[in-house]
Write a structure and sequence with these properties.
- The protein has 401 residues and is of the alpha/beta class.
- Among the domains are: 99 residues, Alpha-helical ferredoxin (Fumarate Reductase Iron-sulfur Protein, Chain B, domain 2), CATH 1.10.1060.10; 113 residues, Rossmann fold.
- Helix content is 51%, strand content 7%.
- The protein has 23 helices and 8 strands.
- A 4-stranded parallel β-sheet has the order 2-1-3-4, with helices on both faces. A 4-stranded parallel β-sheet has the order 6-5-7-8, with helices on both faces.
- Strand 7, helix 22 and strand 8 form a beta-alpha-beta unit.
């Protein structure tokens, strides 16, 4: 498929990325079978191939309407299509460029822009977000109608080990996770201390929330601050940058695209992205000796889309837990998205709930005593409707160590 980008992106690195991704598509349609929204509606424009056409038209100067935005909004950006594509089309790179271009060409109504602004403000202020979570009734009142909301459980993080180890890594604090579940990072620090690695926490957001809500400029400002801090830490001897929210890790790995037209930060972004690790990438080869049996050994492991479809880490958490005495249950589904997808569940509640019902049905088919996942959004989304407890898999590892 040939494309010739026109308008503001013509002659830019972002425009070249878009042309190359579109050019790799051979119209085969195999992506549609893997796409959660196409499987729900059967509408070509709700599948990756149709969305590629919509983005192509927008970038080539064709008219853009609310219908274009409607079908792009329905995309979860789960990247399942990329795993099915025989031509290696990097759909998510095109989608990020196309979504921003469409927002510039056909701005949203003021009410929609204000709502997105409010979500960004709340997400970037953990203290405010934590207060909303604590006030469950208030938070439920401001959620879009039709969206089931249950405040996440308030559990103390527990102790953070003293930095006594020779090996050092840094872990991203995050925004929503810092408010909803700071215990995830504390548990990660305890586990890593047992394999001889001290963790320090770098507070703040990765920029994914504002970027995915069409606020690219604030997202870049956030990313620049984090990049500068991470580069200094790498220069000081830090081995790696841990991110135990797989959605945030996916976005940090894409920081080079965020700065593809900004040479001053491009190389630094590439360096940082190359050092990003999900905790499973370190722990899968570590010598771990459990000190006790799991209290609830039967677990269903939910691999987030951002863990399996991007870095290709499907099944590795399950293998680690099995080594530690857990009994992962068989899950009879084909890896479909749970419907969280960052803020997607707020703005597309109907699709998000349908996908969650299907996912929980598959996860609970083996009658597990609990569900584990590796992303803050999936944890919140599944936990809001699950009959069995949902936790981060690192908590399960911390429990037996």
């Amino acid at each position: 498929m040939h494309a010739e980008v026109k308008g503001p992106l013509r002659g830019t690195a972002a425009g070249a990325i878009a042309e190359n991704v579109i050019g790799a598509c051979v119209h085969c349609g195999m992506c549609n079978g893997a796409c959660p929204t196409f499987r729900i509606t059967g509408d070509e424009l709700d599948g990756p191939r149709g969305r590629i056409y919509l983005i192509k038209q927008a970038l080539e100067g064709e008219p853009v309407t609310a219908l274009t935005r409607h079908h792009l909004d329905r995309c979860l950006e789960c990247r399942a299509c990329e795993t099915a594509c025989p031509s290696g089309v990097e759909y998510h790179r095109l989608f990020d460029i196309g979504r921003g271009a469409v927002a510039e060409i056909a701005p949203r109504p003021m009410t929609e822009r204000r709502l997105r602004w409010a979500v960004r403000v709340a997400a970037l202020q953990p203290a405010l977000l934590g207060a909303l979570f604590a006030a469950g009734g208030l938070a439920r009142a401001v959620m879009p109608k039709g969206l089931s909301f249950r405040p996440p459980p308030r559990i103390k993080p527990g102790p953070w080990p003293q930095g006594r180890q020779t090996r050092r890594m840094v872990i991203l604090g995050g925004c929503v996770q810092a408010a909803a579940a700071p215990r995830f990072n504390a548990a990660t620090a305890r586990v890593f201390d047992k394999i001889g690695i001290s963790l320090t926490e770098r507070a703040g957001c990765c920029g994914a929330v504002p970027f995915h809500l069409e606020a690219a400029k604030p997202a870049r400002a956030i990313a620049r601050r984090q990049i500068d801090a991470f580069v200094q830490l790498l220069d000081s001897g830090v081995e790696a940058i841990l991110v135990n929210a797989s959605g945030c890790a996916a976005f940090v790995r894409d920081w080079p695209d965020l700065f593809c037209d900004e040479p001053a930060y491009l190389e630094k972004a590439r360096r940082v992205a190359a050092h990003v690790r999900d905790p499973i990438e370190v722990l899968r080869d570590a010598q771990l000796t459990p000190r006790r049996r799991p209290a609830t050994p039967r677990v269903a492991v939910h691999d987030p889309c951002t863990l399996k479809n991007g870095p290709g880490l499907a099944g590795q958490v399950e293998a680690l837990l099995a080594r530690l005495g857990f009994e992962p249950t068989a899950i009879a589904d084909d890896g479909q998205c749970c419907g969280s997808a960052g803020t997607y569940s707020l703005f597309q509640p109907e699709f998000a709930q349908r996908l969650r019902v299907a996912k929980l049905t598959a996860l609970n088919a083996g009658e597990p005593q609990g569900i584990v996942t590796g992303n803050i959004g999936c944890w919140m989304h599944l936990g809001a409707a699950s009959a069995v407890p949902v936790r981060h898999w690192i908590e399960a590892v911390d429990e037996v160590l």
